[in-house]
Amino acid sequence: MDKKIAVFPGSFDPFTVGHQSIVNRALPIFDKIIIGIGINHEKNSLFDFSKRKFWIEQIFKKNPKVEVASFKGLTVEFCKQINAGYILRGLRTSADFEYERQIGQLNKSLFYEIETVFFLTMPEHTFISSSVVRELIKYKGDMTKYVPEIIAKEIMNNY
Ligand code: ADP
Question: Whole-model pTM?
């Protein structure tokens, strides 16, 4: 049987405890999870790609089932290239659902073989997003509860 490979796509600017929880909960279901950092030149990121990648690698360094990669263009094309049959996404709110429904159905119509798998966020993570964390960093608020420790430490020391 083919290995169950999932892509968890996103900007991860930066990776939050919400993202971490989705990956950890999905791990028992898949043989491999590729965290795919989408490179989108129209989105101005706060953290450069190599920093975002380094942090995620550190967070999962003890777990050989997790890899980090970058991709440009369509998520389904990236999945095809690396032989991934699943796209992993998190759902926080009904607004997330409406957005994800459209993209998920579009992806299904583009490439039928790929299934999108959704995880409901933990209730305590529903209000956490990378953009909220970026706002906290900008206005020097406490973001330490919302990102993994290694990221919090480095941001507190350098930003
Ligand atoms: P995008 O640029 O695609 O929105 P993000 O990095 O913001 O990328 O998010 C990637 C994925 O993680 C999305 O499926 C999103 O719904 C999910 N996600 C984001 N924040 C959380 C959270 N707090 N809890 C659970 N899932 C989340």
Answer: 0.95
